[in-house]
Amino acid sequence: MKIKNENYNKIPESTTELSEKELRNEEVILEILENHDINGIEKIRNLFNLSKGQIELASQYAGLRKSTISEMEKELENRKKENPDKTAEEEKLGVFIEKLEPQVKNTILRLQTKGYKTYESGFKLFGDQMIGFRENYFQNPKIFKDLQDKLKTQDINLEIKPDHLILGFKKFYSINEMKEIWDKIADELPELEK
Length: 194
What we know:
Layout: H1 20-23, H2 26-34, H3 38-47, H4 52-82, H5 88-93, H6 102-113, E1 118-123, E2 129-133, H7 145-152, E3 156-161, E4 164-169, H8 175-188
Antiparallel strand pairs: 1-2, 2-4, 3-4
Helix pairs in contact: 2-4, 3-4, 6-8
């Protein structure tokens, strides 16, 4: 779930007009990657010092993100027509279930039942995935050591911050494959005392 930047307007017809500051804007980057703007992609690649393989992977994930978000918007529209009232679970989450990206949806719901409070989840820039938490639950990241080691063998980096879990991918994973990875992470997390 992303909050739109009110200062952001559609990128100009030509990315040659974009400043370095504009090229660092997440929404601008996503639009360039989603639209396969060759000139803009090359500028981003140079600005962030990415290899051709890394920028190609980022473009693949931007396309996956775009199609996923489009599908979610349709599902939410149908849901609001058929049943506009939030369930008790949705009230606790603060969003309709249909607003949760499919690869993290099950994990978010499971974490909620374990006592964890989240505020953002899903795609990040360049194909990374993350879940943001309302509290600093992960003061001791060693609880994930075995899982981190296992994921590294699959070209996945699990970064643990006190209030975020971030997955970085070095190859392309489908929504279902990402869901399986997030489910493994949910399995590892203990229930919080209530």
